[in-house]
Amino acid sequence: MTPDEEQFVAEMGQFLGASGMTPMGGRMWGWLLICDPPEQTADDLATALRASRGAISGTARMLETAGMIKRLTRPGDRREYFSVPPGTFDALITNSGRTFRRFVKVTEQGLRILADRPPEASERLREVHDAYAFFEREVPALVERFKDAQIRGGRSTTGEPAPSDRIPA
Amino acid sequence: MTPDEEQFVAEMGQFLGASGMTPMGGRMWGWLLICDPPEQTADDLATALRASRGAISGTARMLETAGMIKRLTRPGDRREYFSVPPGTFDALITNSGRTFRRFVKVTEQGLRILADRPPEASERLREVHDAYAFFEREVPALVERFKDAQIRGGRSTTGEPAPSDRIPA
DNA sequence: CGTGTGTTTCAGTATTGACTGAAACTTCTG
DNA sequence: CAGAAGTTTCAGTCAATACTGAAACACACG
User: Fold this and answer.
1) Distance between CA atoms of A67 and A130, rounded to whole angstroms?
2) Closest CA to B153 of B169, B140, B142, B166
3) Residue ranges of the alpha helices (H) in chain B?
4) From the list B30, B34, B142, which residue is nearest A114 (CB)?
């Protein structure tokens, strides 16, 4: 790992570490976005990120659950390979959609508490609730628009063949 | 603070605590969304949230910086009052826009690292970068649409009818 | 069915960072 | 100008949690 790469990985760790994910999760994902080859064994990752096998295992599981990495095996090789599959941003957005949803739920509960008070008592909360409900509904459409633009524009399509799923022997 | 309110405040704390903000920040914001009166002194907050004055001070400063609360004073009253001003969701979104922007910056740095490698080496990262750049560009427009819908429909609208936004008593 | 390779689990450790509380500072008021 | 009320700062404490490392586990191959 070059110094540049090291810094990129560190920054991804800081960034995702500050947004719900663990620092290690950010570092691992960052590395998997730039590493060569794109598929890495648990051992590769432990070496590159200078982390314990335990940390790799747990973090990989978490990232896999979040849909941010994929786990592959190939016949005749007992090891597992991890990689960032094409279309990952989709999983990311879906995930943040879940966050929106949860927030809407919490604010709805709050509005219920204020139900028997004068209407102006719930103005503040209602505004926030409505905004998030709006976003929860509209963001998927935005994602579709992005996908369309991406296909039309040609570069780096997603949801298509996905050749990188194959491990080149 | 009733048990219901207590729970709402706690959940807001958990929620925002898990998304970058501190738990205390979430609790304070949650309380300011439902409290009566809507303006609270530092002392009110310390009592309601059972927190130290130091915590209130620091947290209030953080929330104020994020644009999530407003600080006001009244002539003849030395105390400061805090409240959630109308249009706060705007500050929230603006803030998350900043997050997008930072992420785009980080990924751009990563792409620069991969500049002298074959194009397929940067496919993974480019896709993520493009998605976030797209969102950074499009979200403000979405906010405008929400504002318009809010004005057109009076209170609690979201673009379309959206009956599910209403809380049943 | 044993052996060797690889992965997961889990208790322990270390670190981070949020909150406390007292002291310092600021700013109105009499 | 003295005094009081209020706020901020900051060093210390505490709790949460991310990572380590060794032991248990799973699996393929000979």
Assistant:
1) 28
2) B166
3) 3-17, 23-34, 42-49, 53-65, 88-113, 123-152
4) B34
- Looking at chain B, the whole-number percentage of residues with pLDDT higher than 70 is 90
Q: Which residue has the tokens 């958990």?
A: B14
Q: Is the CB of B74 under 7 A from strand D?
A: no
Q: Which of A132, A32, A121, A129 is nearest to A81 (CA)?
A: A32
Amino acid of residue B113: I
Q: Is the pLDDT of residue A163 over 80?
A: no
Q: Which residues of A90-114 are buried (b: 16+ CB within 10 A; e: fewer)?
A: bbbbeebbeebebbbebbbebbebb
Distance from C-alpha of A7 to C-alpha of A17, rounded to nearest angstrom: 15
**pTM (two decimals):** 0.85
Query: Contacts of residue B128 in chain A, CB cutoff 8 Å?
Result: 33, 88-89, 92
Residue B163 tokens, joined? 């009956």
Backbone angles phi, psi at B66, to 5 degrees: -75, -5
Rounded CA gap, A145 and B135, in Å? 10
